[in-house]
Amino acid sequence: MSSRKILKILEEHKGEILSGIHLAQELGLSRNAIWKGINTLKEEGYLIESVKNKGYRLLPESDSLSESEIRLKLQPQAPHYQFILLDEVPSTNSYLKENRESHLENNTVVLAKVQTQGRGRLGKTFHSEDKGGIYLSLYKNENLTDYDIGLLTIATALAVSDTLDETAQVNTGIKWVNDLYLQGKKIAGILTEGTLEMETGSLSSFIIGIGINVNVDAFPEELTDIASSLSLLTKKTYSRNEIIAALLSTLESYLLLTKTDPKGLLARYREKLLFVGETIEVFRGKDTFQGTLQTVNDEGHLVVDCQGQRKTFNSGEISIRKAKN
């Protein structure tokens, strides 16, 4: 498709003016085909400036999701990813679950501009109807013994946290087990789901869903005290393609640590863990109680002191929040 070829060149020279003649010669297309392709890209939301008598320029602030720009920014050590970009989907995790029997490749990444039914742990929702967010799911069905399934969420949360800290120059913290916070507001969440073989009970695939509020500029009223975005908190805008590429360039190395160096992984996770030494509220089914968050143990389970009694919880049992003063 000519518009994709044009976009690839514009992204390789983002911010530079390229003449229509240059684009036409480079791609072996007519000037009219270049013009039509540029208009198609503009209709898709790419910020392309047409400079009279000079050519076209993809503006640096253009932030439409783009496979070619993500691939351009991926580091050499990144695995080979198969990308699926969707305009709208109920949930990227659900999309992969519904299509995993259709010969999906290992390391398939689904990206959506909008999710209408974004999901979190324990049936909670994740607001993901704003086009300024990253809504991404990764599918794996090969070499699964290379990973400790029980630590995948922890590894992913740390990978996302470190990526955002580096690319946005911020200092994120992790609320056990899967939520990322900045300045007291939730900016990202993770949902990991596995599939077992019925006959053997062994893991046959898993999906890691990641939602990040990057350039989201508004939230429903009921979420304004809880959630925010990188752009709202820092007063800056960010390239989602750059963040995605940075995350996918290093995510695999974090996932492999679940087997090769789980102690090191958990030590780093503990450094990021929020509410240590503070009173938290613990929700388990219909029960609610308070305790002091102590640490995460070597299995990645939360350790809480409840009135002198040390209790350990796994991620499937509970949710937590900081106790109100």
Automatic annotation (TrEMBL):
GO biological process: protein lipoylation; regulation of DNA-templated transcription
Gene3D superfamilies to which the protein is assigned, alphabetical: 2.30.30.100, Bira Bifunctional Protein, Domain 2 (3.30.930.10), Winged helix-like DNA-binding domain superfamily/Winged helix DNA-binding domain (1.10.10.10)
Classification via PROSITE patterns: BPL_LPL_CATALYTIC
UniProt keyword annotations, A-Z: ATP-binding, Biotin, DNA-binding, Ligase, Nucleotide-binding, Repressor, Transcription, Transcription regulation
DNA-binding region: 20-39
Domain BPL/LPL catalytic: 78-259
GO CC annotation terms, alphabetical: cytoplasm
Record-linked Pfam families: BPL_C, BPL_LplA_LipB, HTH_11
Residue positions binding biotin: 91-93, 115, 119-121, 186
GO molecular function list: ATP binding; biotin--[biotin carboxyl-carrier protein] ligase activity; DNA binding; transferase activity
Reactions that this protein is recorded to catalyse: biotin + L-lysyl-[protein] + ATP = N(6)-biotinyl-L-lysyl-[protein] + AMP + diphosphate + H(+)
EC number: 6.3.4.15
Transport as UniProt keyword: no
CDD domains xrefs: BPL
Keyword RNA-binding: no
Protein family (similarity comment): Belongs to the biotin--protein ligase family.
Function of the molecule: Acts both as a biotin--[acetyl-CoA-carboxylase] ligase and a repressor.
Protein name per Swiss-Prot or TrEMBL: Bifunctional ligase/repressor BirA
Native source species: Proteiniclasticum sediminis
Lineage, uppermost ranks: Bacteria, Bacillati, Bacillota, Clostridia, Eubacteriales
